[in-house]
# Entry
Amino acid sequence: MVTEPRSKPRKAAALASLARQFLAYVGVSLAALAVHYGVLAALVEAGRADPVRAALAGYLAGAVVSYGLNRRLTYASARPHAEATWRFGIVAAIGFGLTWLIMAGLTRGFGLPYLPAQVLATGVVVFWNFLGHRAWTFAVRPVPVLSEEASGVR
# Structure
């Protein structure tokens, strides 16, 4: 298949746009991670909580920060809150489950200390959340297009 000369600049622009969006997501994620890890460490070190439960509590606290900042800064979404929040919740719930599986497997199964286990879990969940929110939670809503016949425009 022969590509048109204009398709390369379009692909490069699309890739650059995706890279900028991912960098914005990483910046927002750092803020959410600060909350997540702060709650995790406080509960484990001060409260002597189970690391898996503390990681999940931190995940929920970080999710609140993540929703607000990602909606505004990363995805600039106009999707109504009533629709975006439940979509965000589903993507976050899957990330929550992944966090639980990874943390339980690494801390209880392999005896890894909780912070390195959390770093590995975060590495997996960051990509899941970015792609899920980009493709579904905050994606641009499709606009119905009428055919030429139905619209009467030619």
User: Anything to note?
Assistant: Residues 18-139 form one domain. The mean pLDDT is 89. The first helix runs from residue 7 to 46.
